[in-house]
Every structure is written in structure tokens, then in C-alpha cells.
Design goal:
Structural class of chain B: alpha+beta
Number of helices of chain B: 4
Helix content of chain A: 10-25%
Low-confidence stretches of chain A: 1-27, 439-478, 572-619
Strand content of chain B: 15-25%
Mean pLDDT of chain A: 82
CATH class of the largest domain in chain A: Mainly Beta
Largest sheet of chain A: 10 strands, antiparallel
CATH topology of the largest domain in chain A: Beta-galactosidase, Chain A, domain 5
Radius of gyration of chain A: 30 Å
Strand content of chain A: 35-45%
Radius of gyration of chain B: 20 Å
CATH architecture of the largest domain in chain A: Distorted Sandwich
Number of domains of chain A: 3
CATH class of the largest domain in chain B: Alpha Beta
Number of strands of chain A: 30
Number of helices of chain A: 7
Shape of chain B: globular
Helix content of chain B: 10-25%
Distance between the termini of chain A: 43 Å
Oligomer: heterodimer
Low-confidence stretches of chain B: 1-56
Mean pLDDT of chain B: 81
CATH topology of the largest domain in chain B: Nuclear Transport Factor 2, Chain: A
Largest interface: A-B, 65 and 65 residues
Number of domains of chain B: 2
Bound molecules: copper (II) ion
Strand order of the largest sheet of chain B: 5-6-7-8
Structural class of chain A: mainly beta
Shape of chain A: elongated
Chain lengths: ~625, ~280
Amino acid sequence: MLKRFGSLALAGAVMAGGLLLVPAGAASAQSVTEASCSGDSLVKETLTAGSSWEMCWRIDTYRGLVLDKVAYQPRDEAAPMMVLDSIALAQLNVPYDTGATEYNDVTTYQVGGRRLQAITDVDCPTGEVRSAWTDAARGEIPAICIGEEDSGLAYRTNITNDALYAAQGSDLVLHTVSRIGWYEYQTEYRFHDDGEVSVRLGATGDLSPNDYTNVINQGWPLGEGDTDFAVNHYHSAFWRVDFGIDGAESQVVEKFDTDPTGEVGTTGDTGRTPILDTQLTTVDTEGKVFVENREAYRVVNPDSINADGHARSYEIIVDRDQAYNLNPETDYDIAFTSAKPDEVHASYNLIPQKANQGVSDYIADGESLEDPVAWVNVGFHHINRDEDQSPMPIHWQGFTLYPRDVTAQNPLIPEGRKWVNGDMRGVPNPNIPTTPPTTPPTTPPTTPPGTPPATTPPTGGPTTPPADGPATPPTDGGTATGTVEFGSNEVTPGGTQSVTASGFTPGESVGAVLHSDPIDLGTYVADENGDVEFQFLVPTDLPLGEHRLVLTGQTSAVTAEGTFTVAAATAASIFTQLGTTGSNANVLATVGATLLLLGAALGFAGWYRRHRGSGAVLA
Amino acid sequence: MKLPFPPPGSDAGEAGEGRTPSGRAPRVLGIASIATSASAVIVLAVASQVAVHATSDEPDPASAPIAAESTDEHAPEKADAVAPPAAIPAAYDQLAGDEVSYVRFLVSRSADFAAGGDLFGGAGLQYLSTDVADPSFHTDGQRRLSLLYYDYASNELVSFVVNVTAGTIEEVQRGSGSQPAPTDAETGLAWDLLLADGAAGAELGAEYAALTGGAALTPETDTLELSAHSFTTDAASFGAESCGVERCVQLLAQVSGGAFLTTSTYVVNLSTKTVLPVS
Ligand SMILES: [Cu+2]
């Protein structure tokens, strides 16, 4: 609940910049990606769920498919957000367990160029095939398949008396195929509608016809009996991932390290549930890492803040303990270096000024990380199977880039769940009536204090004048008084109000009641300073006018109260509400279509705020 | 539209010749690449035939093939002139054939190129590849390509960064010890050398005969698909320890029908034109 100040600051920025920017118009603005490439090189796809991806693609002679300026636009954002400056294969190392053979396919064989296969119907049954000029001898060939594919269940939550919230997801998928000797490799990038990116290499084709051995422990018997042992081998695939989160000028690499404290909780099923402590430390200098159990890494843009005040980042999810840790070229899961134009390949670098160097050389100077590049190494020990004979069933290796706090909520959130943000204990579900009417309409409306409201206007229309009289005086039992501050002095029905109150005894329970119709807003625990912070959703049927919030310490009897105004939506209040809740369509829904324009301006202003001065490349 | 390649005074680019008898017909791409080496014509890297639809009456120089090797008769490196591409791609766009011709021509006019030696002992560097130079390190939006050549005279890898927009070479770098994947010409010459080697030629000939019902294996045999990878080693145990500093390749030879000849037991040193047994 610490988001209040950041959110208000955002609202201020929006007020200052949003209106001014309306004439410029988001519609005519060219994104960084659109400014970087053109024609068939530009991919821009809005998925079924409404989120979009855009990027530039090209075929590199050695690395094959290269994607640049990869940007994601969550469904409810007005502009794309840069995620990756670039991603491509950086090496493919295949050593055989007999020690007799080792290949480095990217540099010594080529994944692009003449090795790139022409895409056929069977490669691309539903997607769009685009061409590329791959090599001098062939010129342009159909090189890539681009299409939207189902990804199965995106989310599902079945809320009693509310709704089953569930949806199917989809991915934007780009892939190419390369033939390297007897193997064929499919390079695939899968951009999910929720912002996740799956990076994979599929291996098919044929097992090596040359690598058979009679050393039982170095191969697996193929064919009849136990005479022909196909040599086991590793495929270590390396990707160079150049992060550019939200057009960052500087990004930070952080390590998550979760360790047991040695203490246990006794209230769980086993009575010995370990208490874990998750520490975040920054990785300040270049180096290799093995990702151990309960460790993770992410790249953060500290200057890009989501609607909840959290810095946007992408996490690198790798399988653990798969690396071929037997050579310096392959002995890491992830290595972090500062981006350099002459550090292109993970090993056997082809740039003459760093000829034949690799990650071990790049990190040797222990430089500080500014524009971090992650070299992700995914190892796969291929112990051959009978089934792997011709044509070999495709087998996959890869990793995932996982958005962390890119959006303040699920980017595909259904309307009815937008009110859930943070600890909502004590906050009634606005989708269902909080209290059924218990009083027959014929009974005079004599509402005793402390009873839930029996007269609820059917709409938020301003039919009920504000009841500002002291019909229900607060308890006078408390001798001491605390203070209450609101996130904003004026809110609209359906908006979120945040509350900070102080003066209570640390640790005591504090009840919160909204007057004049007494509405129970729940009970909160005062923190170590005697402060209480919480948010609540202003009921859409709350009468316009002034309302008083009274908090009562249940131990100290301290009371704290303050007033705020519920007002019909205005442009100013919309900005405030949006600033508080992000792109909250609940709010938008209450104020009518004309204000959607202002919402779009807000989104664009947010984009502008994040991107100004970021040195965007314009062609 | 200008046709920057072929240049005036030279024949049409041979790689595209004969494949587009009519601009209206589907352009057939990806058929066998023909590489000319010292004495032989070999079918290399045969890809499946693929037809794409032509949309204009004349071959588009941005998408058409060009001579793959700097040592080919019609190579941009041997041209008298190559015009700049009709349209300069955006910084992050994929390659276009006409800009590749243009930058190869520009490189061929440099002193660095002329001072180098090619695969066959001639003057001039041996062309390896052209790619987009990582555009993220520039903010001017100009188009830059990175070319790799091999200098057989000094056993160095030479890179050129050419600014297509400005038509200038911005950077030349040289280094040793790095061996990019071999070209078709290098693959073809390595194969010739392998067949000419007494032991290797006999072994491969016998294996080929067994697979084909007695056919003879000669440099003219065109039922093979050849490919190769560059070979680098730190090991000093088998006589190939100079591979890496010198340019060596290992071949793959796939006979029609799928079988591979056993070529993994040899390495061909293209810098010294020698065959090295490695097992
Ligand atoms: Cu395998």
C-alpha cells in the first residue's frame, strides 16, 4: 500500500503533460520499432486477446534469425513498450561423448545464409511466409513463418456468485529452419499475449551417421541387439539477449536468492514449514552464473514504473543444472556482459578485433554492467533413443523471458477482476450486492446506527443529496484522536480511495466505518508506528457529496476521522482516478465514452513520460 | 529503376541467368548452386526447389541472386562499377541483394582488398559474408553492413563496416585465429584436394562404389551434395594443430539417397592446400 505517493505523482505528471499532448495524437506517432525497419522486415501483430507485439527480423549469415527492437503492448496500454533491443542465437556447441567430434554450428557451419531452408507448406500450415535475401547464390527465398497460434488456457478463476473468469490465450510465433549437416534445427520465438517470451531451438533431421561406437557407456544401442551404439552428445544452445526494457538508458541485473532462515512455522500441515527469506542483490559486474536451486535473475529498468509504483523487469527462466559445465565455453547458465558491438558470438567470435574470443574473454575485465546483455546457455544431453532414428522426432531446448511487474495487474485481466489489486481483505466484491435488502419497502426507513444500509439507490445518479448532517455522531468514548489522510480529497463512484491513518497503538485492530450510511470497510491492524494504510473501492451507488470515514482503535479507543467528497466524474477526477488505479476500465466505464479519449491521452502521456530523452532511434 | 548489378560491360549475373526466362514465370530459386573451382564444377548445397511469385516484369536486383564468390568471373568485386542500391533499406531491415553487390564492390576498391590474397593464390581478398552491422550502436539511422573476407596471403580474417547510406567504408579490422564457415568455392576446392589425396581418395572411392553399385568417384561426380564447416583445434596430437591460425575445413559429402561418405577422418588445410588425417 505504499503506492499512494508514486501514484499521485503520476497523476500530476499526466495532468501536466497529457492535455498538451493530445494534439500530437498517439495515432500518428511512429513507434521505435516502426522507425527501425520497414516492409517485410517489420512484424506488427495484435493478438486475439488485444495485446500486441512488434519487432524487426532479419537473417544473419551465421546466427540465422535475428530479432531487433522487440516491443510488447499490453492490451490496455496505448503504446508498445520496448522489451529487447535484440535477440539471436549466439552459438550452438555439439560435442560428442567419445571426445572425437565437436561442432560449433553458428560460427563454423552457419545457421543462416546457405543453411537456411526454404519454408514449405508443411513448415507453415497457418502462418504467413515471408521472404529474405539469405545468400548470394540463392538470392531471396521464403525464409520465415509468422503466425498466431493457440496457447491453451490463459487463466481461470471461478468466483462464487460472481463469474467464471477464464480465457484461452495465443502466441505470435516466428520460426525458421536450418539444415546443418544431418541435423535440422528450428529456431522459434513465441511471444505470448501476456507478455511472456518463449525462446526455443528444436532439433530434428538425423542422428550423426558417423558417430557410432562400441564403447557401451558412450552411446545407446540403436538397431537390433546391442552392437551399434550411437554416440551420446550435448547440444548447448546459446542466445545473446540484449535487454532494452522500456527504452532504458541503464538497466540493473538483480539476483533473487531464497534461503531458509532455519526457523519453521508450526501452523502449517506438517508443523515444520520452513521460513524462507528472499534477498534481492544487484549483479554489478560482468560474470557467469550458475542458476542454483531457489535462485533467479531479472533485468530491471529502475526508471520504468508501472501503475502500482513497481519497476518493470523481465526475468530469465532457465532449466537448472543442464549446462555442459566441462569447458569454459559452456560452463554457465547465464553470463552477463555490457553490450559491445564486437562481442557477437558466445564463443569463437567472428569479429576480427576480438577474433576467436568468447564469453570467458568478454567478462575477464569485470566491467560494470550498464547495458546488460544476457548470454543464456541451455544444455541438452542427448542420450539417443531408438525413436530418434530417421526422421528424428523434434526435441526442444530453450528458456523463457517472463515479465515481472510490466503491468500492475494481469495484462489480460477481465473487467470484473480489475478491482482486485493488492490485499483486498475487507473489501466487498463490487460485482455483487454487498447486502441484500432486509427491510420491506413499507417499513419506514428508520435505520438504526450500526446497521448496514437498507436504502441503496439503484444507480450512482445524483438523486440523493449529500447527507452531511451529524446524524450518526462518532463514538465519543475515545479521548485521544488520530489523523486521517486520503489519497485524494475527491473521488468518483467506483474509484479507489486510499487511506493513511495514524495515532493508534501498534498492533491493535482498527475498525473503519464510512458515514453517513454506516458502511463497514473492514478491520485493519496498526503497524509498528501505529499507522493504518488501506484502500477501498468507493461503492458505485454511494451518494454524491461529502462522506466521513471514522477509524476506531479497538484497544486504545483512539478515533481518527476525516472527510472526502464523492463527485461526479470530471476530467480532473478521471486523471486522478486513472493515476491511482492505472488504466482502470472500471472507472472509464462509469464516466462515458467521451472520456475514453482522455484515457488514451493518458496512456500516450505515460508512454511519452517513459520514453522522453531515451534517445529513440529515428530513421 | 536502376539496375546496379550487373554493371555495364559485364555479363548478366550468372547465378540468376537462365532461371528467369520470362519475368512472368515464377522465379525458381534455391536450385543447385554452381561453384567453379580450379578444375571442377560441383553441385553444392542443393536445396529443395521453391517457387515464389514474381511481381514485376524484370528481375528485382534487391531480391535476385548474385555471384557468390569474389573469385567468380561476375563477382561484384571484379566489376568496373556497381551503382548504389535503388532504395536504401532502413537501419534494421533485412539484407537486399543490390546493396550487397554495392558494398562488395566498394570493398573491392579498397587498398585492403587489393593487398590480400584469395583462395586460388590470386590477388584480392576471398569474400565470405555480408550481414547487417548491429544497428543498435548507432543512432543516426544510417544503413551499415558488415562484410567478412579472408586473406589467404596473411591468414587473417578481415572485416569491413560499410555505410551504405554514405557509400563509404567506415571501419576495417583484421584478426587471426577466427575461422568463419567456408564458402562454396572453399568447399569445392577442399573436395578436390581430398579426392586428389591418395589415401582419402581411395577410401572415399571405395565407399562411393559400394553405395552406388560400382560407380567411380571423380571430381566431376555431380550426385553428391557437399557442405563443410571450418575446423579449429587446440589439440596438437594429429598434425592439424595449425588449423585455426590457418584456414581448415572438414567436409560432409552426402550421396543421392541420403548416405554420407566417411569424411570425418580428414581435415583439409586450405591455407597450405594439404589433406590431414585426423583419427
Ligand atoms: Cu542430438
